[in-house]
């Protein structure tokens, strides 16, 4: 049985790196479940004492936690419970409306409207009114959500005894990757020259996805999500000398056609989900295709190293379309990621066992074949293993949470109505309707 919350100070596993990709809150929850499965299945590996951690966006958040000696068990429990002295992980932290940004945008409008009118009057012979009005686009909010609560949340976590918000005091090699907006170059916070930046600020910058969050200003420069350059940045660990890099990537395109054929969902049109569905699929496709190019490059440049990639299947309906604002849904996604990662490791046992063995790590087939439940393994009290039927929403987030739940119920009702209106295929029946 592997250590859960034992004391720090265990000998680090030589030359083993961990690279965690982006993925927003749902991706972070998936990665937590996957990390727990890895933690249990690998003997000779301590996820809190690795050669190097490199993270992007949500992956940076989790790598910083592991480097700060938060165990996989603690992170799992933080999703569904409030441990004494800890701060629970809630998606609402990542989706606080950017009221200040909206106010700044509104204040710009009068001046921009005046400039547009003057530009049109001065150049009306060769300028249309619409052309002059395009400058009003400068008033669009840079970010929809406020990422300051993310920084404050992490600062609180890392201020607890035995942890630190300072790369230089961490005692571990942690690299948080962001992108310099004006130079389009990667910034590796935690490396010399950028190790003075607080870990919480570095993670805030690494997760500032354009359109969702405003760029983060650090020392007079502005930084955005590190995923704009690479998906995983596993090369950071390889360049540093890691001989084995374990990678977890929750961002893969959705294969709804396969999901429908397998009976996992009734309707396979992402267009039905509107602009968010189209943008999500586009982002996932670009990110995953770029990862494939990177992995191919690693094979050529680092032929003597090992890179193990774990990620969800493309037809994983539960992973892609579960609303993670609800406590029960967060629990479900984390458990699902835990179980599917265990199944994946078992299915790839013949391939992966020799790879891990080369680095003194044992992939435990017996552990993977043994039926296990995540919440029992992480020591969650029995009363908390099943979500309460009626839970009071957290203070300050009741409106957002209730609205989101209502929309989710409405979406399910609409899907059922559409399914009843559209004749089913000969091999399908109404019994296949989602619950």
Written account of the structure:
- With 435 residues, the protein is α/β, with parallel strands linked by helices.
- It is built from 16 helices and 13 strands.
- The strands form three sheets. Strands 1, 3, 6, 7, 9, 10, 11 and 12 form an eight-stranded mixed β-sheet that branches.
- A hairpin with a 4-residue loop joins strand 6 and strand 7.
- Helix 1 packs across helix 3, helix 1 packs across helix 12 and helix 6 packs antiparallel against helix 7.
- The radius of gyration is 23 Å and the shape is globular.
- The N terminus and C terminus are likely disordered.
Mean pLDDT: 79
Helicity, in percent? 40-55%
How would you classify the helix and strand content by structural class? alpha/beta
**Order of helical and strand elements:** EHEEHHEHHEHEEHEEEHEHHEHHHEHHH
The count of DSSP E runs of length 2 or more, i.e. the number of strands, is 13
Query: Main beta sheet: strand number and arrangement?
Result: 8 strands, mixed
Tally of helical runs: 16
Low-confidence stretches: 1-12, 388-404, 406-411, 413-435
Report the β-strand fraction as a percent range: 5-15%
Straight-line N-to-C gap: 37 Å
Gyration radius from CA atoms, angstroms: 23 Å
Shape: globular
């Amino acid at each position: 049985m592997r250590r859960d919350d034992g004391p720090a100070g265990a000998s680090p596993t030589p030359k083993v790196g961990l690279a965690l990709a982006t993925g927003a809150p749902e991706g972070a929850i998936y990665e937590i479940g996957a990390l727990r499965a890895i933690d249990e299945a690998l003997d000779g590996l301590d996820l809190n004492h690795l050669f190097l951690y490199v993270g992007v966006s949500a992956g940076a958040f989790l790598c910083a936690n592991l480097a700060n000696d938060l165990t996989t068990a603690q992170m799992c429990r933080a999703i569904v419970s409030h441990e004494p002295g800890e701060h629970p992980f809630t998606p609402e932290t990542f989706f606080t409306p950017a009221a200040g940004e909206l106010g700044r945008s509104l204040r710009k409008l009068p001046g921009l409207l005046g400039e547009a009118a003057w530009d049109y009057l001065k150049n009306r012979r060769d300028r249309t009114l619409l052309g002059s009005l395009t400058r009003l686009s400068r008033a669009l909010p840079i970010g929809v959500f406020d990422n300051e609560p993310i920084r404050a949340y992490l600062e609180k976590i890392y201020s607890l005894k035995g942890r630190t918000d300072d790369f230089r005091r961490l005692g571990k090699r942690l690299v948080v990757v962001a992108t310099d907006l004006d130079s389009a170059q990667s910034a590796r916070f935690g490396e010399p020259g950028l190790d003075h930046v607080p870990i919480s600020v570095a993670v805030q910058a690494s997760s500032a996805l354009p359109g969702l969050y405003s760029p983060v200003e650090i020392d007079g420069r502005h930084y955005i999500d590190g995923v704009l350059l690479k998906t995983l940045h596993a090369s950071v660990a390889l360049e540093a000398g890691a001989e084995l890099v374990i990678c977890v990537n929750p961002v893969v395109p959705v294969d709804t056609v396969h999901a429908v054929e397998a009976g996992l969902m009734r309707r396979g049109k992402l267009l039905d989900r509107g602009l968010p569905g189209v943008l999500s699929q586009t982002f996932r496709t670009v990110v995953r295709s770029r990862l494939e190019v990177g992995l191919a490059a690693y094979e050529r440049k680092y032929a003597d190293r090992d890179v193990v990639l774990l990620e969800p299947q493309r037809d994983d309906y539960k992973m892609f379309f579960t609303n993670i604002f609800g406590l029960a849904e967060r629990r479900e996604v984390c458990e699902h990621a835990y179980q599917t990662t265990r199944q994946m490791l078992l299915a790839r046992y013949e391939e992966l066992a020799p790879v891990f063995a080369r680095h003194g790590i044992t992939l435990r087939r017996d552990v993977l074949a043994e039926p296990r439940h995540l919440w029992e393994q992480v020591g969650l009290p029995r009363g908390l293993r099943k979500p309460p039927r009626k839970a009071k929403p957290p203070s300050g987030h009741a409106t957002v949470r209730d609205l989101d739940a209502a929309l989710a119920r409405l979406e399910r009702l609409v899907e059922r109505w559409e399914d009843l209106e559209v004749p089913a295929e000969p091999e399908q029946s109404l019994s296949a309707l989602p619950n």
